[in-house]
Amino acid sequence: KFTEDTLIQFADQGLRTLLVSGSRKDPEWWDATWEPEYRRVMKQLAIEGPAEKGHFKGSCTDECRRCRIEEEIEIAAEMDLIGATAIEDKLQDDVPATINALLQAGIHVWILTGDKLETAINIGMACSLLTPDMEHHDNLFRLEANTLEQAERIPEVIATHLSTIHDKLHAAGFDPSKPNELASTPHAPAFGLVITSKALSFLTSQNDPEVMQNFVTLAILCKSVVGCRLQPDQKALIIRIIKQAQDVITLGIGDGANDEPMIRVADVGVGIMGVEGTAAVRASDYAFAQFKFLRRLLLVHGRLNYRRISTLICYMFYKNAMISLTMLWFGFYSAFSGQPTMLEWAIQIFNVALTAFPILVYAIFDRDLDTRTLDENPEIYKLTQGGKLFNATVFWTWIFESFIHSLLITFLPMLAWTFDLTTINSSGKNPDLASYGLIVFTAIVIIANLRLVFQIGTWTALHHFTVWGSIIFHFIAMLIFPSRLLLPLQV
Fold it and tell me: Cβ contacts of residue 161 below 8 Å, gap of 6+?
């Protein structure tokens, strides 16, 4: 009893606990009795079953053969409890500040750990994910399954917690159906959820979509979720559940081999290089040495790259649609005879030389805000959530622009010459098809580059050089390369 109370005290302080026990046995006890049995079981476990996958002692189910043989050996050894010890697992620098910034950015943060319940809660408090106010206002909910009775009551407990949250949110004037607004409102009621490994195992074993959906809804309405005594495969399972239920982008971050399955399942995996090996780093998409670097990765580089890539994709479709539609409109005028409008070499260098470098420089260097502003104001990151910069409306707006621009580029020169509003030169002669195609292509190059000008947030020497240089290079190319490869044709 004293040792158990001591372990709880250690866990409340956020310490990693260790029980020490021992037994004196003759060598024959192991050599003759248990070693053959142990080797036999280990050979069978060469092919792991579902119960042994992601083995984590103390959190496995009763069907885990590895836990069963280890427990039988411990019982047969008749070991005596010697005592308990604990060490401090100190958080890295700026972990609470980083997590708080992620929460301000509208990102849901979950802690999935193998620690005891009390230790996990203490870690949540230290990271500012859980707060004392949650406990004071009965806003910290727990899902435990230490007994069969507790496990069977989990669906009822989830429903009760959901009802409590709805009542408190309605009383505070918030809509429970809009969880994103709760995360972005500083004075909204904050809820926390703690779930144990056994409770999660019971939930997943029920195969009840309604109960699982209620659990996901409960988790999303909470400011943060803490999972304790979780096996590695359970960490990955939680990410799968959230991805399937909410259709969101997930990020998994860890520093140990037990975090590897979670990192692999997440859409973005981040490994922290530490003293627990390199398994997490090898399985990740990004790796760094400190958790605090996650703040800059997401709020600065993540937001900037999302904006750049969104514009790059739309712009590539825009400029290629514009030149393609121009040839389509001319097909109506030429009765779809197959007569080309522009020179082949001009079309070939359009994407390679005349419009390639401005968007390349934009996609690498452009910034609409400086990095310090993005780092100090996490709320700006919310503008990138929910596909606000890249969605069907944004994409088709770009395509509509290419449609209008191509119509104007095709028919304005044609109408001007048809009604004798202007001539190609002072001779007064009607222009031929090559001259018409040259003017149309020149308009396409200029408009395609100038359209990107309206997207540029920060002008640098490279921006000026590539944008204006591409336009100038077009006129130089017109002088160097042959421009009259087509037979004259009256238009």
Answer: 141, 193, 218
**Secondary structure of residue 354 in the 3-state scheme:** helix
- Give this prediction's pTM: 0.75
Q: What's the CA gap between 257 and 269, in Å, rounded?
A: 13
Alpha-carbon Rg for the chain in angstroms: 33
Compute the residue count for the chain.
491
Hey, is 418 helix, strand or coil? helix
- Find how far residue 434's CA is from the centre of its chain: 50
| pLDDT tens digits, one per residue of 3-43 | 888 877 777 776 777 888 888 878 777 777 777 877 777 77
The DSSP annotation for 118-187 comes to HHHHHHHHHTTSS-HHHHHTT-EEEE--SSHHHHHTHHHHHHHHHHHHHHHHHHHT--TT-HHHHHH-TT
- In sequence order, what are the residues at sequence separation of 6 or more whose Cβ sits closer than 8 angstroms to the Cβ of residue 431? 417, 423, 424, 439, 491
Q: Which residues pair with 255 in a beta bridge?
A: none
- Compute the distance between CA of residue 144 and CA of residue 399 in angstroms, rounded to an integer: 53
Tell me, what amino acid is at 275?
Answer: V
Location of structure tokens 């997401």: 298
pLDDT one-digit tens code per residue, 106-150: 888 888 887 778 778 888 887 878 888 888 888 889 998 878 788
Are residues 38 and 69 in contact, defined by beta-carbon separation less than 8 angstroms?
A: yes
Q: Which residues of 336-371 are buried (b: 16+ CB within 10 A; e: fewer)?
A: eeeeebbbeebbebbeeebbbbbbebbbeebbeeee
- Contact call for residues 374 and 380 (beta carbons, < 8 A): yes
